[in-house]
Write a structure and sequence with these properties.
Length: 240
């Protein structure tokens, strides 16, 4: 290990990435290089981060000005790191997945290509993303059953079809789905939701429901859209 490599290995040593000869050579380098000792102490936060670790198993040669203490602490840190490295990697991956999923949800709500979850209409001047998209578009009205009304604003996407649904005149409890029906008769669920007992767009709860949905089928290949209950009842049909 030459001097140039030794000086640049402070970070690798602090992270426990040096093994065997490189580790021993760097520890020998620490006994004569005050700048690396200072940098290592600064990087590792030895006083707080290594509290509670077990005793050092290897004897250390005498050294000056605390270098041995730093090496002692870092060796113990390395052993702890080796025991926990696999778990740390898994935790990091889980955190990354969570962040990615969160980013996709935020993108959908801001008008990206992913479908967002159901959003009830806002009160006053506040509009959710589905309501805003619906208000800015040209709705295709649907034909409802039993007092149900609503429509869709449709948008062609590279991945298929994006729709914003407005639904009113429906009481719960119900479980519903927005389904695209292709010209060949294939059915694709675009989104699903629960209707609470109070319902949407009815006396006592006048606000309609707005939500996004997505289908992998291109818009030009779709014959109609349906709002159906999970027990097979058809609430709304939108022909295109």
């Amino acid at each position: 290990m030459n001097a140039r490599v030794e000086h640049t290995d402070v970070g690798a040593y602090a992270l426990g990435l040096l093994d065997g000869d490189d580790q021993r050579a760097f520890e020998a380098h620490l006994s004569v290089c005050r700048s690396c000792v200072a940098e290592l102490s600064e990087l590792s936060g030895v006083a707080g981060a290594l509290t509670g670790l077990g005793p050092l198993e290897d004897d250390l040669p005498p050294s000056r000005d605390g270098e041995a203490e730093v090496i002692d602490l870092m060796r113990r840190k390395q052993r702890a790191d080796r025991r926990t490295r696999r778990g740390t990697v898994l935790i990091g991956l889980a955190a990354a997945v969570t962040l990615v999923a969160g980013g996709m949800t935020i993108g959908a709500q801001l008008g990206g290509d992913a479908a967002a979850p159901p959003v009830a209409a806002g009160h006053g001047d506040h509009q959710g993303p589905a309501e805003e998209f619906y208000a800015d578009g040209i709705p295709v009205p649907g034909v409802g059953a039993g007092g149900v009304s609503g429509g869709l604003v449709l948008e062609s996407k590279a991945w298929g079809t994006h729709a914003a649904l407005k639904l009113a005149g429906v009481k719960g409890p119900l479980e519903c789905e927005l389904v695209s029906v292709s010209r060949s008769g294939e059915r694709h669920v675009m989104t699903g939701w629960s209707v609470p007992k109070t319902g949407y767009g009815v006396p006592g709860q006048p606000e309609p429901l707005y939500m996004h949905g997505g289908s992998s089928v291109p818009l030009e290949q779709i014959d109609r859209f349906e709002v159906v209950t999970t027990d097979g009842r058809k609430l709304l049909t939108i022909d295109v």
